[in-house]
Amino acid sequence: MEMFNHSRVSEFVLLGLTDSPELQIFFFVMFSIFYLMTMLGNCLILLTVLSTSHLHSPMYFLLSNLSLIDMCLSSFATPKMIMDFSVQHKTISFEGCISQIFFLHLFTGTEIVLLISMSFDRYIAICKPLHYSSIMSHRVCVGLVVTSWTVGFLHTVSQLAFTLYLPFCGPNVVDSFFCDLPLVIQLACIDIYFLGIFMISTSGVIALVSFLLLLTSYITVLVTIKDHSSIGSSKAFSTCTAHFIVVLMFFWPCIFIYVWPCTNFLVDKVLSVFYTIFTPFLNPLIYTLRNQEVKTAVKKKLSNQHLNLGKTIPIYPMQ
């Protein structure tokens, strides 16, 4: 904890999304519903994949891990943002602010690598179907998930190693609803403009290169699918389209915020809401609506739960 003592700022003030009382009430209700549905939706997918034997395949193993990361990504800042709508003075401790930066970059870095792993899985399944079972073994799938978390951890540590040693001795107002690197380093008491731009843009370049890699992968897959007109190809096209929608929703806000840091704070707020709240909320909907296997398994699980609930309700004879 010695490194924290270099800072004379004990807390940061969060300006939040708006200072309008009416909008704060509206946002409190709206984001509470979004957060609850995000947790329920992703939890349902996770439990469905774990409890359905025919979904124990590499694609759904990676999908369940995506749901886990989405629950984490939605939880690192959203609950505090919701609670802050009911208070006038929104603050966060220095340690809490650093923790938000840590978890944000951990979860986003992990999700980037996991999305690449999911595109690799689809590439092998469609372009090299005869070698799929040998390449995408259980050990490889576990290795891809472990690699995702490892890369995410190394990425966030590299960002924090730079931030923790900055002196924060005066300004402490963060124009957002959570702490993020581009906003926090601007509050340092030394001129780190060019170094800060370099560090932040590194995250943007990683996101941009990863997106281009994913784009190339999905274009290759879609071209391969186009050359095979069949029911299986139609199913593969639907799956890949769902994957790419997720990729697009996740990457474009990250690229905009980190490739061009220190731009319009209002735009950054909207984009931050999108990839920390809306994307984790939409992922379960996209996968259940675009994927027939998941949709069928979810419906079956819900119907079984309904039947089991009916069996547990005692029926007493009328007297």
Automatic annotation (TrEMBL):
<keyword id="KW-1003">Cell membrane</keyword>
<keyword id="KW-0807">Transducer</keyword>
<keyword id="KW-0716">Sensory transduction</keyword>
<protein>
    <recommendedName>
        <fullName>Olfactory receptor</fullName>
    </recommendedName>
</protein>
<feature type="transmembrane region" description="Helical">
    <location>
        <begin position="59"/>
        <end position="78"/>
    </location>
</feature>
<dbReference type="GO" id="GO:0004984">
    <property type="term" value="F:olfactory receptor activity"/>
</dbReference>
<keyword id="KW-0297">G-protein coupled receptor</keyword>
<keyword id="KW-0472">Membrane</keyword>
<dbReference type="InterPro" id="IPR000276">
    <property type="entry name" value="GPCR_Rhodpsn"/>
</dbReference>
<dbReference type="InterPro" id="IPR000725">
    <property type="entry name" value="Olfact_rcpt"/>
</dbReference>
<comment type="function">
    <text>Putative odorant or sperm cell receptor.</text>
</comment>
<keyword id="KW-0812">Transmembrane</keyword>
<dbReference type="InterPro" id="IPR050427">
    <property type="entry name" value="Olfactory_Receptors"/>
</dbReference>
<feature type="domain" description="G-protein coupled receptors family 1 profile">
    <location>
        <begin position="41"/>
        <end position="287"/>
    </location>
</feature>
<dbReference type="GO" id="GO:0004930">
    <property type="term" value="F:G protein-coupled receptor activity"/>
</dbReference>
<keyword id="KW-0675">Receptor</keyword>
<feature type="transmembrane region" description="Helical">
    <location>
        <begin position="192"/>
        <end position="225"/>
    </location>
</feature>
<keyword id="KW-0552">Olfaction</keyword>
<dbReference type="GO" id="GO:0005886">
    <property type="term" value="C:plasma membrane"/>
</dbReference>
<dbReference type="InterPro" id="IPR017452">
    <property type="entry name" value="GPCR_Rhodpsn_7TM"/>
</dbReference>
<comment type="similarity">
    <text>Belongs to the G-protein coupled receptor 1 family.</text>
</comment>
<feature type="transmembrane region" description="Helical">
    <location>
        <begin position="272"/>
        <end position="289"/>
    </location>
</feature>
<feature type="transmembrane region" description="Helical">
    <location>
        <begin position="237"/>
        <end position="260"/>
    </location>
</feature>
<keyword id="KW-1133">Transmembrane helix</keyword>
<dbReference type="Pfam" id="PF13853">
    <property type="entry name" value="7tm_4"/>
</dbReference>
<feature type="transmembrane region" description="Helical">
    <location>
        <begin position="141"/>
        <end position="166"/>
    </location>
</feature>
<keyword id="KW-1015">Disulfide bond</keyword>
<feature type="transmembrane region" description="Helical">
    <location>
        <begin position="98"/>
        <end position="120"/>
    </location>
</feature>
<feature type="transmembrane region" description="Helical">
    <location>
        <begin position="25"/>
        <end position="47"/>
    </location>
</feature>
